[in-house]
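Follow-up to my post from last week.
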Amino acid sequence: MDELTVLLGYFASEMVLAIGGIAILVINFTSPNVKGRYLGYLAACTVGVSAFIMPWQGWFVFEAQLVRSTLRPFFSFCLSPDMYATYFKFAIAIGMLITILASLDYVEARLNGVSAELYALLCFATLSMSFMVSAVELITLFLAIELTSIASYALASLDTSNPRSVEAGIKYFLTGAAATAVSLYGMSLIYAFSGTTNLREILNMQTEVGAQFPHLILVSLIMVMASLGFKGALVPFHAWAPDTYEGAPTPVTTFLAAASKVAAVGLIARFMIYGFSESLELWRPVISTISALTMTVGNLFAIPQRNIKRMLAYSSIAHAGYMLIGLAAVSQAEIDFMMGKGLLERTDVAMTGFLLYALGYAFATGGAFTVVLAVSHLLGTEEIPEYDGLSQRMPHLAWALTIFFLSLIGIPPFVGFFTKAFVFAGAIYSGLGWLSIVGVLNSVVSGYYYLNVVRHMFLLPPKAQSVERTAPSTDAALLIALLGTVVVGLLPNPFLQWIRDALNGVILMLR
Amino acid sequence: MNDGIGILTAITFLPALGTMLIILTPRKHTPLIRAIAHCISAFVLILSLFMFADLDRSSPHMQFVERFLWIPVINIRYYFGVDGLSAPLVVLTALLSFLSIVYSPTAIRHREKEYYALFLLLETGMIGVFTALDFIFFYIFWEVSLVPMYFLIGIWGGPKREYAAIKFFLYTLFGSVFMLLAILTLYYFSGPPSYDPTQQRTFDMLELIRQQPLRGHIIAQLLCFLGFYLAFAIKVPVFPFHTWLPDAHVEAPTAGSVLLAGILLKMGTYGMVRVLLPLFPEACSIFWKPMAVLAIINIIYGALVAMGQDDLKKLVAYSSIAHMGFVMLGVAAAARASFEVPSTYLETLVRAKIMALNGATLEMIAHGLITGSLFLLVGVIYERVHHRDLNSFGGLWNQMPVYSSVLAFMALASLGLPGLAGFWAEFLALMGAFGVYGRFAWLAVFGIVIVAAFFLWMLQRMLMGSLPKGYETLKDMDMRESISLFPLVFIVFLLGIYPQIVLDPINVVMTHIVKSITLYSGID
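User reply:
Got it. Predicted complex:
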């Protein structure tokens, strides 16, 4: 294979995203009369195509390195387009696809003046999140985070007519800047003890350094976690999330919850395992504490919320906590497996659960926000009491939202059950039984506020009788999210197989 | 061994198929929706009767087995089968679901499409709990039965329905998540199943019972036992966990109460017999005394509180708690370890345990039939007078003779009149309990007296005396109500004079279970 084929094969979806994003800007610049809606279709196609080719891209890389051994370094091993990355890119792109399809009506009605910017920024954000989950070098990683963050700041404050949107952007930006500064300091510490920015080389230095200065590693890790935790809205770096989620235009909130969070946890896991698995016992308590805190705080604060965006903001904080259980519970066998040594036992399920959780979460949260967007567009409200009697006015929206919520609670047979079962199982098998107990108790608590919305939709009489029809694009978004939530739950085998390959492929990109 | 799809798949998933059909039917075709619900549930009942007729009644092993790999990564199997314990419960579920659907059109007048769709989904969940033999599937069906019941209570329930629905949901969810943790722990300790040595672990219930993975890991065993016990005890409900039950039963629509009392409570006791006893013999031998005490409390407390009720539905609900106490009494009797008694006494003890478990299982069936019909009867009178206050009734015997006869019949059956189904169940459970506990079991007899007292008092307040004003126009049971009640009357009578129909297969399985417990709990 020549260089060009390989390059195309490795980065096909990224190229699609870049071209699509630029095309939207160019079209808007050259012919301003094109309707925002068509730019939205273009963005949806771009993201959809990139999601569609992602699994094949993963296989291409997998095959290139395993079967033909023709793997070549790209960008000096700063980016690793392995199957782990493509899996997360797929989850991100799916979340993004649902976001864009669900937003078309909303954007046309409320953000028509900036639709080109919005869609282009969404494409670029997807691109930069793809870099986030494939970065294996500190500077690249930092750049990817910043690229995503800047796109997100701009997106959050896009609705300039609404002061709350501007406030959301400012808050997001200020906390983000502080987090970035702290994490840069952490990275410089890492460089100080290892003399390199490549994660693999950092890993190799660790046994030596760790024996001498275990606290140095811990401190630098915690500092980097500040930035990563900020992107993933992990407690205690979550304070920006509720205000920003509520104030930002709803499509942007959807993007932040469904896609950005997935990218952040994907990055955290890669950073921790790829670069610091030698210090596993050092960071396992940190991650498990953050996980327990994140779940508990997210769920408890979600209970009193009356605004559904704010409630979902806290619930998405909580879900990042559940996902981190999988990372905190990673077993030595899994790390070895990810390093290309050894095989997985039938009890090594923590990371499998982690990856499956990210995908299942993207489907369910994306779907839930689709309903929120549709209701917000049709009824003009985001307050939970206004959802009264929705099941009699728009039954398909009400039932879809119920299914997404049941999946988020972890009720079978939806995908959320299996993801939770996997991470809890992983926690038990790694001796973190307490974390699994915190997890299940949190699931019960979350049942209360999710069912509160269900109560409003089904148990209370409608406040108005009008029946509205949803747009075909919304229906498409709902269909994708429902298919993901139900089918991945009932027939998870292909996905589990993909996850196994993805885990196996992480480290194979190394020298 | 059949490795393909068979009759159990049909019985389990036909109702879910019905749910799909109803969802696809436009809302305005109400008669068609009703027809689908009636046909599907009737068909499921017929299939389950065929299954029961085909059951090999002398075999303690699983029959009609369907098993194949579903999720290889953690060896979850699509695994269904029934034996003498679960087959009668499957028939009971199909029967009560069908009769409830027959009854429903008299009470449910709005949002019928959602009602029947959810009702059939609930049927799938309930049957699946009894037929699934893989722990993950068991858990899935356990939870699947939870969601429709939430909606049934919440949408078609009484005045406090929202509170009752969420309370029911959260309580049960709270219990079941610990069961999930226990299941996951069991998986960790398990070994390869005998039929597929290439797998390292298994969720197969029978295989886990055979392997006794927690033998010797006493801490893990105690924790897992408690996880399962919590889930089952909340469902049964056992005394301190029972507070959801009066709310849920009283607020649920009639058909919901029937299934709640008739089937959902049995899921808990079924789990105790199927899972707790054989899987955790050592933990059982530690906990049998608290279990027995809680069972006695259930009987006496339930009966006493029922006696204090003026609300007919609450009375029946609390009588359920008392009756489930008898099931728990039988289970606790079987839980007692054999090594505590001298070996000369062992044979007697084993016989007593078998008898107690037979009684417990028969009580599940009898209580399902009897309390199910009592809730239907409550619904019948409530639809006519729109209240359930016992003090405002009187003299119904002259006004509604058919109704009153059926009510009297079922009340007598419930208090354990010899010759009706409830008698054999309580008799066997008590006899077995005497054999195991000795004098301690006398306490339960007080419960029987109180149950008899409040049921007779109820009959007196409702049927005797003079008819209150305005009740002269009350009509007796109509066709639909009769069709939904008379089969139950017949079966309660039949099981009273010839209990062997279900007792034979039950006895075979219980003997097997008790023998295996005795084996595992280490008589050397």
